[in-house]
Amino acid sequence: MFELKKTASSTKARLGLLKTDHGNIKTPIFMPVGTLASVKAVKQDELVKKVKAQIILANTYHLYLRPGCDIIEAAGGLHSFMSWDLPILTDSGGYQIFSLSDNRELKEKGAHFKSHLDGSKHLFTPENVVDIQRALGSDIMMALDECPPYPCSYEYAGESMKLTHRWEKRGREAFLNTEPKYRHKQVQFGIVQGGIFEDLRKESAKYVTDLDFEGIAIGGLSVGEPTELMYEMTDLNTDYLPKDKPRYLMGVGNPANLLHSIARGIDMFDCVMPTRNARNGQIFTRNGYINIMNAKWKNHNVPLDPDFPTDLCQKYKMSYIHHLFRNNEILGLELASLHNLTFYLWLMREVRNRIANDTFYSWYKDRAEIMDRKI
Amino acid sequence: MFELKKTASSTKARLGLLKTDHGNIKTPIFMPVGTLASVKAVKQDELVKKVKAQIILANTYHLYLRPGCDIIEAAGGLHSFMSWDLPILTDSGGYQIFSLSDNRELKEKGAHFKSHLDGSKHLFTPENVVDIQRALGSDIMMALDECPPYPCSYEYAGESMKLTHRWEKRGREAFLNTEPKYRHKQVQFGIVQGGIFEDLRKESAKYVTDLDFEGIAIGGLSVGEPTELMYEMTDLNTDYLPKDKPRYLMGVGNPANLLHSIARGIDMFDCVMPTRNARNGQIFTRNGYINIMNAKWKNHNVPLDPDFPTDLCQKYKMSYIHHLFRNNEILGLELASLHNLTFYLWLMREVRNRIANDTFYSWYKDRAEIMDRKI
Known about the structure:
Two copies of one chain form a homodimer.
Chain A: E1 2-7, E2 14-20, E3 23-27, E4 29-31, H1 44-51, E5 56-58, H2 60-65, H3 69-74, H4 78-82, E6 88-90, H5 94-99, E7 102-106, E8 111-114, E9 121-124, H6 126-136, E10 140-142, H7 154-176, E11 187-192, H8 198-210, E12 215-218, H9 227-239, E13 247-249, H10 255-263, E14 268-270, H11 273-279, E15 282-285, E16 288-291, H12 311-314, H13 318-326, H14 330-356, H15 360-371
Parallel strand pairs in A: 4-14, 5-6, 6-10, 10-11, 11-12, 12-13, 13-14
Antiparallel strand pairs in A: 1-2, 2-3, 7-8, 8-9, 15-16
Helix pairs in contact in A: 1-14, 6-7, 7-8, 8-9, 10-15, 11-14, 13-14, 14-15
């Protein structure tokens, strides 16, 4: 399902093609996050035509709680429920149990947790998250893992990793012993853990590789550790991952993070940042980011960037966008979300072009630094 | 600026063409409300291409307070500020002083009021609302009036009407003695008042007609009085208005209200209902309205109406729209707002076609009754 097309000469950046029954995905790629089966404030046809998204992510934990698998199954699966014909990746819920739920309790069998919505009790096991993702019908499902916090002790990280490994073995078996519910193929990705400890990260990469998932994610990063440490762990992990499988760095990140991680061999990303930050007025551009709420834009009566193909950049004056945000107008959220996602997907195309014509290495570090600056 | 094209045979319904420098408007017409220079949750290009809006309304009171006339003037006027090339009508602020502001005090000179935002003190006069609307640069501006509450005594209604008349006379003079600030023509509409009292309504219609505004609005209705009384006053007023001027019933209404008022000779409408109610989950259709929050839609796995050309009706399952609303997803607000406005503008086209081919009379009463039912 994955073709490695090219590896860059002076970095570990790769070009690939990920094939699914809902379409092929050119990597490196960023996946917009549609937590509750909607990429917030963006319409499905805009995601396809304007953002040029190739795949989106939806959250198993959230959809399991609302609207529930029965509703989505009755609608014919997640693609049909949300009228989305391109690929979907669903996570396993492991990260949300760690970050959102109350009173979680990890047992050998699985993770007991209380819903963050109503306190109701639930259990996710390596097996039932496969069943849930069969009901959702995502093209790519994730195995259940535990995501340890940062910082955590070597001992905790090691025990947690071993639990994740046992869960992933059971999850892989559950996947191999079940069939899709709909008329398209599903694949399963495993997740490497190990905190910020080199030997654990190596061990986990090898263990997860041996389970022969169709793709491998790097989990447990971007949870509060210094950025340099995240890059280091990523770099280390990709050295121990097979070349013929797609690599997905979960929950990362800002534009600079993406470039640095691609240079370290990552193919896939997801993050709420472009949409969440858009709703707070942060606009990403090729030359840095801006905060539209800043008074400097109040009387700025020209568009932001006539050369960038979004309505926010070309069509509207900055004074107007500022006014929309100052007054909580929904249109502001729409324009900024659409812009930031379009920017992220533009960045991935730019990266792919530069890997293809061997100009990625000479370009990415300076560009990452520029994009990391506030304008 | 107004051509009366046809009057229906068995009702007072009219076909007209209202000409402005930003384009011609076929009447009867509904004007989507863009209070703060944004029709809530709808993009400008969607208003043109999908809703097929011909003109929108913006609120002088709101724009005067936020972002302020200086900002809009620096941006080159309201059209330029909000990137909207079709006609705009602005109200005078009279209604918002009545409905929103604290501690208003009416004097002969004008209306003193405190901002509903920060309590700051302001004065609107017949003259300065002309100046403000010159700065906004709307194609159609409204004269300042007082909108009395319902119920109110005959005496209050009469005194209020007389004050409105004196203000309108001054407002008309201010309009005639000032020039547009931008390169397009502006016109001014007067407003008939008189509460629910027949003789006052007649007197006001005659008085306002004599001031020779380019169009005449009927104000002070849809403020809590019984619907039948609103129709009665409208019917009475249009009998005393000149045939060659457009007639605008302010702040009305639901689909049935529009049909009944068109039958009584009204050409123009505005109302927040299609967008505000959309945000609360009320969807208008040809066969009645629905509340998308209702549990009956939870598992309704087909689109609402494949024959009606909105994404809400054709593209998405009702179960999905229900899910979006249950979870406060912005996409739900977007789809419902876009649908309701598209429906309102479709209704106006349908009405115009039926007046043109003389099938309005036989159609409108039954259709109004059907559209007034909850599905």
